[in-house]
Amino acid sequence: MMSPMLHKVKAFLDVLLDSVNDAVTGVDPDGTVLYWNQVAERIYGIPKEQIVGKKIGEFFQKGSVMLFQVMETGCPVHQLYHKPRPDKHVFINAVPIYDQDGELIGAFAIEQDITHTVKLSEELYSKPELPNPSDSAQLLVNRNSSMQQIIQTLRANPDRHLLIGEPGVGKDTLALTAHRSVANSGPFVTVPCDTIPGGLLDSELFGFEKEAFGGEEGRSGKLEMATGGTLYLKNIHVLSLPTQAKLAQTLSEKNFLRVGGTTPIPLESRVIVSASPDIETLVQNGLFLKELYYAFQPVHVPSLNERKEDLPELCHHFLSEAAQLTGKTVPRLSSEVMAALTTYHWPGNLPQLRTVMEHLANISGGREITLEDLPPSIRPTTLSDLAADSLPLAALSEEMERSKIEDALRKTGGNKAGAARLLGISRGSLYYKMKQYRL
């Protein structure tokens, strides 16, 4: 009989498992299903009442959820790509569970359903035309709700925004979008603060008078050059404290002085700035002036890893761009490739995605891109990869067996005799298996 404390723990665990966004399956060492959350019910259409207490093998083959293999080997599985059904794409994390004495008591599998993102990619190919690769606004694909809000905010008020985000998330394009949202928007002037020596930034921003540098002709700064338009300061967090103070005063008083000058010059441009995610820490540590920080409206730009729903269109944009430059046919991304791109974390954000798409466009020759084409760092482990090559085909579950046959046929370019040799079976057995699995 379960103790009151165990009843409480089970209640907490049930709520926790039903609160996550992924399918969760828990089994004991014999394969009896102990946990089956609501997301799993929705993905597979199997009510909890029908599966809990039953053997997992009655519903899924051993390879489809990896739980038995995890318990047999004691090795967790991370980010394993699998296609449990023709219309489903998931990534599996599975771990064995041990009690305090080190005895195996079961295993958990967590499956992330990425079918929606894969289908978005497939839908793009059904359109008459792919997005125009010359349209830079395509980089602002905004299926992500956070990006939608940012774009609406910038277009409604294209002034005094601080775009905070990792390198490569699209801050420059967002600033340009805000600028272009204004009719007769004037010049768009960019100052990359991190590439200009600190001693020259004041004169670069505010300009200087003839007397300031020993008789050299005076020059307008970027603030004056942006008159009637937008000044975009990239990576403002690198500015020195004195320059920060001068810029804060300019924004407050709406005028400024050239270096060495005494005549106030009115500020007649919009100002948008960007900074790295650690700017708030710099403010707290006194390394960035609060007066300047609060002169802008902070806008946190999500990383590519936080806006995976934009990946299909971004991938197609970069593929189209690369194909147009080389005169090649725009290649198609297989569903497995789109699944792999979705689960990757993209630390380099948009520039990294562009580089990968350019690589794929160049090597594909217009054919469909497969998992084997992906760089090793991005290529996921699949069900067939996990199966040991030395494991006899007959010892595999049906799902794993099918996957291994598909892999052998792919490696041999469809040559059945070669695939049979790889699998260690006769050609007749291979034909039988192909017919069985409708390959």
Briefly characterize the structure.
This protein is an alpha/beta fold and 439 residues long. The protein has 4 domains: 110 residues, Beta-Lactamase (2-Layer Sandwich), CATH 3.30.450; 93 residues, Helicase, Ruva Protein, domain 3 (Orthogonal Bundle); 157 residues, 3-Layer(aba) Sandwich (Rossmann fold), CATH 3.40.50; 50 residues, Arc Repressor Mutant, subunit A (Orthogonal Bundle). It has 20 helices and 13 strands.
Give me the count of strands. Answer: 13
Largest sheet: 6 strands, mixed
Q: Provide the gyration radius in Å.
A: 29 Å
Oligomer: single chain
Task: State the end-to-end distance.
Answer: 50 Å
| CATH homologous superfamily annotation of the largest domain | P-loop containing nucleotide triphosphate hydrolases
Number of helices: 20
Uncertain residue ranges: 387-392
Keywords: ATP-binding, Nucleotide-binding, Transcription, Transcription regulation
Pfam families: AAA_lid_14, HTH_8, PAS_4, Sigma54_activat
Domain Sigma-54 factor interaction: 162-362
Domain PAS: 9-61
Walk me through this protein's architecture:
With 439 residues, the protein is α/β, with parallel strands linked by helices. The protein folds into four domains: 4-113, Beta-Lactamase (2-Layer Sandwich), CATH 3.30.450; 118-133 and 305-381, Helicase, Ruva Protein, domain 3 (Orthogonal Bundle), CATH 1.10.8.60; 145-301, 3-Layer(aba) Sandwich (Rossmann fold); 387-436, Orthogonal Bundle (Arc Repressor Mutant, subunit A), CATH 1.10.10. It has helices spanning 4-19, 38-44, 48-51, 62-65, 67-73, 115-125, 145-156, 171-180, 198-206, 222-225, 241-253, 279-284, 290-293, 311-326, 335-343, 349-364, 383-386, 398-411, 416-423, 427-436, and strands at 23-27, 33-36, 77-85, 88-98, 104-113, 161-164, 188-192, 230-234, 255-256, 265-266, 270-275, 297-300, 381-382. The strands form three sheets. The protein has a six-stranded mixed beta sheet. Strands 7-8-11-6-12 form a five-stranded parallel beta sheet. Helix 6 (115-125) crosses helix 15, helix 14 packs across helix 16 (349-364) and helix 18 packs across helix 19 (416-423). It is elongated. Mean pLDDT is 84; it is low at 387-392.
